[in-house]
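Quick check before the chapter quiz. The format below is the same one you will see on the exam, so make sure you can read both the input and the output lines.
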Amino acid sequence: MNREIEYVVAIAEHRSFSVAAAELHVSQPALSRLVGTLEERLGLKLFERKSHGVVLTHAGERYYKGALEVLKKERALAAEMERLRLANASALRVGIIRHPEQRYLAQCVEEFRAHHPGIELNIIEQLSRDVEWGVRNEKFDLGLMSPPYIMEKLKYTPYETSHLILAVPTDRLPPRLKVYNDDSLPFPWVDIRDFANTPFVLQSPTTRLRSYIDKFFARECFTPRIGLITQGSSDALRFAVQGMGVCVLTPGYVYRVRAEGLVSVFCIGTPPATVTHGVVVKKGRTLPLCANDFIRLYFASRGEQHGHEQLFPNGHE
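Here is the expected output.
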């Protein structure tokens, strides 16, 4: 950036050599000398010192207006070069939530490497709040997660909806439980109120899924009888299987134990409760060009038909 232009703009905006010098981290005498040299070379006075501060001359006004245009173009050019550098990055950093449903990830990674053999793919499994923090602070290029707590500076695009389900140990099913089958639901439906006297194994209140579960309970005007609080959904399911209660989670956690006949699974809520998962990126951040391929392959590996052929055209948010 042209120092003379930057210095003249700072003086004009602050109407003070001393304030401008402090902002620019130069001494006031050095700033005065530079401006004096510039005025001598131009053969024009740019500033006049008045009792109420420094003011621009007519020539100074013209110089200031042109200087702003030059600075705008320089910054736009620098930003464009930075976008090109990021778009052609040799690595893609993806944050994903810790979840058994990521079983689809291996197929996605294999196909991505086949399409982009020169790209270093870094996938980090973390809690939702840590993925959100990583995207906001540019530790990750993108995150695959539930909606962020704080949307400021972030753009979230949902890609799928999962039902909240109730997992009940098969040998602990209430004897007169009313079960309703609905072809529009992935599992039979039960009324959560039929489990008013059953202990619940719940996730820690600090987990993202627990916040959705608590909202569901509030919506249904249901107060669970809490038997145990665990660190996360995997632990909640493990204790439920051991007969310590029932638990609420998403389907990805129960495929294995359900297949083994250890739990029965039900949709709950009126209407049936759901949670979404999607892609989160930082607003204004340029993604590597390969990011869209990763997202597309990830959707395809899950069998999702997403409405956006390209979520972030040309590698941009």
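If your answer matched, good. The chain has three domains: 3-87, 91-160+276-315, 165-272.
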